[in-house]
Structures are given as C-alpha cells and as structure tokens.
Amino acid sequence: MKTIIHDLGESYDSLLKSKCDNIISADGKYAPCQGCFGCWTKHPAQCYIKDVLQMACRVIGNTDELVIITENCYGAYSPTIKNVLDRSIGVSTPFSTYRGKQMHHTLRYGKKQKLTVYSYGDMTTDEEKTFLYMVERNAINYGFHEFEFRYLANLNELEGVEL
Q1: For residue range 104-146, what is the model confidence (pLDDT) as tens digits?
Q2: Which domains does the chain have, with CATH numbers?
Q3: pLDDT (tens digit, 9 = 90+) per residue, 43-64?
Q4: Cβ-count burial of 86 within 10 angstroms (0-12 exposed, 13-18 middle, 19+ buried)?
Q5: Other C-beta atoms lying within 10 Å of the C-beta of residue 43
Q6: CA-to-CA separations, 70 to 80, 99, 139, 151, in angstroms, rounded
Q7: Residue 49 CB-density burial (10 A; 0-12 exposed, 13-18 middle, 19+ buried)
C-alpha cells in the first residue's frame, strides 16, 4: 500500500490519486496536534480531534511506502506537512527499544518498505543537507527500511517523476 502526503493543493489530488492507495492533503483544514499523547495511551493510533486527520496514524502506520511532497521551509517540511506528521505520532508506542544501536520508540505497525520525500522551492546546499539528515532520521523513527530525498528545482519536474 502506498500513501502520499502533499501540500500542493486540491488541484493535484486527482493527478496523485492514480499513483497511490491513500492521499493525505496537507491543506491546513484541520487542527494542529494538542500534545495530549492520547493517541499513544488512551485510544491507540486514533487522535481525539474529530477531523480529517483523526485516523492519520493508522493510515500512515499501515502503509508500505510513504511519499511526502513538500515545499522547502528552511531545510524542513512545510508547516502543514509538519502538522500532519505531528498528528501521526501514534504510529509508535510510548515504549522504547534499540534500533540501529540507538534508542527509538517501538513501532505499533512494524517495519515498512520506503520513505520518499520530494521537496520543491528554493533550497541552499546547507538546507539540502539538513533536509536529507531529517528524512534519514524520520525513516528510522517511522520504521522504514530505506529512504530517498529528492530536491525538485521546479514543481513541473514532479510530472516526470515515478511516484
């Protein structure tokens, strides 16, 4: 199963729908994470906020391949993408384990295949290095076996990319 999270707007939904099983449109029409950790403890992998991201943990947790398309914001995800990822903290549990000789939260849904992040917009060399490091760390935290980061100098390049 493949899931795409993007901040491109509704006009891209139909184009991307044919390339995946699930689309999460980071359009900002949802509440940000409240930091209550209820998705970890009280009602696992389900946010108490009743909006389109209520089940984001389960969708992301059950996907084999996650593709994120985001505008570059100083070497990081756009705020709307970051909100989606914050609301999906329930893909892991509050318990810890060692993965790769480092302490990480245990995975609620097990290992996944691949995390791919496409970033568009202006990007300096330092921002690219920061973004790559963050994607690598996210891949470990979310339990992906492999990851890829690609910078798109122009959003039109997305049309030629095999998602």
Answers
A1: 999 999 889 999 999 999 999 999 999 999 999 999 999 999 9
A2: 2-160 (3.40.50.360)
A3: 889 999 999 999 999 999 999 9
A4: middle
A5: 11
A6: 9, 27, 16, 10
A7: middle
